[in-house]
Give the backbone structure.
Amino acid sequence: MGACAEALEDDCKNYHVWSHRQWAIQRFDLWDEEWVFIDKLLEEDMRNNSAWNQRYFLVSKGGSHKDFTVEERNREINFAIKFINKGPNNVSPWNYIRAFVKGQKFSSFPQVSKLIDDLVPSHSGTCANLLAFIVDSHVDAGTPQRLTAAAEFCLKLATDVDQIRSRYWKQREQALRTAAAAQ
Amino acid sequence: NPLPPLAVGQHIRYIESLDKAKDQFEYYVSEQFRVSGIYWGITAMDILNSLSTMDKDGIVEFVLSTQQSSGGFGGNVNHDAHLLYTLSAVQILALYDCLDKIDCERVVQFVKGLQQPDGSFTGDQWGEVDTRFSYCALSCCSLLGRLDALDVPAAISFIVSCRNFDGGFGCTPGAESHAGQVFTCVGALAIAGGLHHIDADVLGWWLCERQLPSGGLNGRPEKLADVCYSWWVLSSLAIIDRLDWIDNAMLRKFILECQDVTHGGISDRPDDQVDVYHTFFGVAGLSLLGFPGLNAIDPVYALPVTTLSRLDITPALQRPQPVAPVPNACLV
């Protein structure tokens, strides 16, 4: 673990080092000390996707534990929200929230609605991650009005905020309008 | 700035010169994966319509000489056998229609012997497991017409266990999603008939999110663009029928800007040193993007489409599906 840590000082995203570190944790049962290590890395660089993945690896015990408790979900969602508030233009914590909402409704996590409400005034014109997340929360609600609202956000992403992915967003927009009309 | 043209002539001359570059440092530090280097070079030449200028007999003779007693191939003469180079060797022989020059059963037994009880594959006798080796094994046996020699359901099961919370795939269960690993997993599932395990909308979004403002693609969030991802990401998108989720013109621009138009070759990003690996993946990416004048490459096997037609191999690609009515990026 010390060797991995040293290697990660030079290259904190080195794929092979992280792979080796995961092997060592599982082989020698070194789960407990990893939490502090991840915290330190994310404080240094919250955009380190490898570190976000490693945290999921810890919480899910290497993938063997996927039926998260309500406490675990809330703890991890709150953890990610902290970093989103520091800098919303970083996709890793947004994907991280999705992982812990999975299987539940967005509405079960009021802190998620609050996050959206807090960020919309300042970031709804520029932050693709925020708008993509709003799309997902509308889709999750599933009513025709919410699906239509989701479609509007897809259009905004396609034409303004995330133009490089305009084809993706336009296809989603079309699918959502179709679904809204069909209900 | 005007877009540079694709410097086809220069790239052809660059690839032709590689085998003669025995005074170059790079020639020697790449010794252990020479067989893969040859595969990258000749497949690029096929895409560039210039395969005939390569020394087919010399190449085939060299590749055959790297086969070990185990049936596997090493990266160079007298180098230990490994799945990576076994695949490259089989790809080269397939491309050159010389599979009859090897005892295919010996190769199949080597590959089969590396499958583990959990369905994964080690790269060699020393035990490293990686989904790249699953791809190598499945592709190898498929090209040799002996996919039946492997435990395909177990292979699929292991690959699926490497699917992550963001929809991507890593090298082992729980490892970070990485575009290179995504290609190997998606390609392997295509060969094995397991593409229904992929949610194409979720993975497709993760893949197209790799595209940066420069037009180039990275391999994971918050990493730099690199031309080789023009292949790993694009081929994956092509296999799941979402190729148009990438901005085609912007990616073409990025790849063309990574060329050395004077001396030939393509590098990982603009103004860096070129190498045959990035030259191949840049040209292969352009071919998938429909760049005019290039021969077609198959996204699953990373071989010319003509080679697969000759072998009568048509992987069951995911049938074109419209974007799901209510796509939910939470669904992994």
